[in-house]
């Protein structure tokens, strides 16, 4: 979901030295940390996100002089609304695999700052992934939503905020001063907690998949043990 203003982060600085993040899924399978079925489902899920990106760029982009579809980040962000778990992370993974290209200095897209950065589609199809195609970092990059601290309203979240929506957890009205929006759902600040360890989360860093909210540590643990997600 395009929940937040940079909509999907990818590489958390605190995790750069974590060996699990940087190795291919096949290695985690070999080490017994991840089942083969689980890893393959995760790889195919990333395939699906990248294919959705290809389709979105073909639908909403325009062709350049070379016949390639291209679109700026801002229009793509707004046009795709609820299509992606983490648009910026999906773009980063797609670039790593030669599917798209954009300015080299961009690591994480920020809504507003990077709205005019042009993204060019290089490939219109990709083969099915195997266990060696993606790293755990790339799987997580396509599903983690991170925001700039000064901008916690995503596309759709503003509507929830002004509508005084009901909190997903306690079902009570969420007023603007206590509003947190994530995965197209409304929360009170104190209700915005990891679904596993129950720690209160910051709107600047959390993991969301299938509208389930995790802290980044619990997301990693759930992924490795195979609980909770089908990557359907």
Description:
With 232 residues, the protein is an alpha+beta fold. Helices cover 32% and strands 13% of the residues. It is built from 8 helices and 9 strands. The strands form 3 sheets. The chain has a 4-stranded antiparallel sheet. Strands 5-8-9 form a 3-stranded antiparallel sheet. It has a two-stranded antiparallel sheet with strand order 6-7. β1 and β2 (69-72) form a beta hairpin. α3 packs across α5 (87-96). It is flat and about 55 Å long. The two termini are 15 Å apart.
Total strands: the figure is 9
Question: What is the approximate shape?
Answer: flat
- Strand proportion: 5-15%
Strand order, largest beta sheet: 1-2-4-3
Cα-atom Rg, whole angstroms?
A: 17 Å
Characterize the biggest β-sheet: 4 strands, antiparallel
Q: Which assembly state applies to the chains in this document?
A: single chain
Give the fraction of residues assigned to helices: 25-40%
Structural classification: alpha+beta
Topology order in helix (H) and strand (E) letters? HHHEEHHEEHEHEEEEH
Low-confidence parts lasting 5 or more residues at pLDDT below 50?
1-15, 146-162
Mean pLDDT: 79
Distance between the termini: 15 Å
Please tally the helical runs, counting DSSP H or I stretches of 4 or more residues. 8
């Amino acid at each position: 979901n395009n929940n937040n203003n940079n909509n999907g982060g990818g590489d958390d600085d605190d995790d750069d030295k974590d060996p699990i993040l940087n190795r291919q899924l096949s290695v985690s399978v070999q080490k017994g940390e991840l089942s083969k079925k689980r890893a393959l489902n995760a790889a195919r899920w990333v395939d699906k996100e990248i294919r959705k990106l290809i389709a979105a760029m073909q639908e909403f982009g325009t062709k350049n002089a070379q016949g390639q579809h291209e679109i700026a980040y801002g229009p793509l962000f707004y046009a795709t609304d609820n299509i992606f778990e983490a648009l910026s992370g999906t773009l980063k993974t797609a670039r790593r695999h030669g599917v798209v290209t954009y300015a080299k200095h961009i690591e994480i897209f920020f809504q507003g700052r990077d709205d005019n950065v042009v993204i060019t589609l290089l490939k219109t199809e990709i083969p099915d992934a195997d266990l060696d195609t993606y790293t755990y970092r790339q799987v997580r990059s396509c599903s983690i939503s991170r925001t700039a601290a000064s901008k916690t309203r995503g596309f759709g979240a503003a509507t929830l905020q002004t509508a005084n929506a009901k909190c997903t957890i306690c079902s009570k009205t969420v007023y603007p001063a206590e509003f947190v929006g994530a995965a197209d759902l409304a929360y009170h600040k104190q209700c915005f907690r990891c679904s596993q360890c129950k720690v209160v989360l910051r709107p600047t860093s959390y993991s969301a998949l299938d509208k389930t909210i995790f802290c980044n540590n619990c997301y990693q643990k759930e992924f490795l043990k195979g609980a909770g997600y089908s990557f359907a």
